[in-house]
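Help: why these numbers?

___
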Amino acid sequence: MTDDQQLERVLYLLHFAPPYKGAMHYLGITKASTIGRRLEDHRRGKGAGITRRALESGSTLTLVRLWHHATPQDERRVKYNGHFNKLCPLCLHRLPTEECRAYPPLVQRVASSPSTPIVNW
């Protein structure tokens, strides 16, 4: 593994079903080389507090989106802008078509993965 691969970061979006106290998503960032371990932490209730509480309340967590080559600034920008339902493929089909088209791309240089869920617990 090259130094660049070890430093690469991945931004990820988790979807909660049913929502937890009105929250439907969690956005996080981690090294690409540790994404599997980070998702396992969330699954075991050892990740972020909100994902732990969502699991305890009976919610299912689904990994719905990945953005490679992300930076901490990208994470802050997305969190500040909110509107995770417009980035979530599970929520997107429920939005009016005009609203989906009007929403600009997340970050031009951040490539997104296919919109199918990858991990579901």
